[in-house]
Amino acid sequence: MSHRIAVVEGDGIGPEVIPEARKILEHFLTDADFFEVELGLAKWEKTGSACSPDDIRELKGADAIIFGAVTTPPDPDYRSVLLQIRHELDLYANLRPIRSLQSSGDGSSVDMMIVRENTEGLYSGIEEIGTERSTTLRVVTKAGSRRIAEKACSLVLERDRNHPLVIGYKGNVLKSDLLFRDTCQETAEAYGIKTQAVFIDALCLDVLQHPNKYDVIVTTNMFGDILSDVCGYLTGGLGMLPSANIGEKYAFFEPVHGSAPDIAGKGIANPVAAIRSAAMMLEYFGMKDEACLVEESISSLISRGISTPDLGGMASTSEFGSRLVDAVSKK
Ligand code: NAI
Ligand code: MG
Q: Any idea where the Isopropylmalate dehydrogenase-like domain is (predicted)?
């Protein structure tokens, strides 16, 4: 089946890392139809809109979207492109695998999945901005909590590691989180899955100290955003972390990192997070073996010292991407 894939490079390092992810997609999806959609700050500066209704229509016409990153200007009237897309496409599940590349063989390798609720919580977009007082509404609904808990439970079963589902929350302070916790617990019980509810602040430390204790962690929107960046520490930094934003109808794949203006234009950005996001797209299309091959080939290159400077190597962004295509072509 031929797939229609929307490619959004975005701002900053987006136009550097996404072409490398695209090379991998083009290698495996030979008859896919790729089309580009321009979104982000550069477009906002040119047209006054970072993401228009036409852009959303175009994205909805794709079977899957690969996205780089966009820069957010310091302007209170600017509407976050990502929040807009997540809401309009109802991409309620943000899946963020935290996986170290090579297994060290002593069981110390890291392999967990953060399941972040992606449409409500503190990123509801409901805000009143004033000069003396500004508020943001934190929304937790039963239906929203249930559907993300169901996604997390199905991942616990699929991964089959006999670990409890960990619920990251802060119900001692935010009463809205009690609805989240209770709904996750009820849902897990129906699936026959044990749960462990942990306060998010303590979880941020424990996950670094004892990463092997964790398998699937489900949490609300902003906590998942922060926890996944924290976990970047376990896997070599933000340049390594991919993500998938999945809804009932649409699927959107993006590196966890932002547009990294501090290194943009230098050709040194690590493309691994973007390439692993492309591998998640392959898996979404049922190409699990191909996705594993990409992961193994990334591991193998990095273990041979071929990497971008953030991992201590000398390779440029495009050099790493080309070496990776060579590596997967030889298998
Ligand atoms: P960032 O993730 O862009 O950068 C944080 C640090 O990590 C920087 O030092 C950067 O150089 C480094 N880094 C990030 N990705 C890297 C890569 N692939 N290779 C090597 N080093 C990498 O986060 P920051 O600085 O907080 O935000 C910069 C801009 O990106 C802001 O405008 C922010 O709003 C936007 N942003 C966009 C996101 C998105 O589009 N999904 C997500 C996060 C931030
Ligand atoms: Mg983030």
A: 4-324
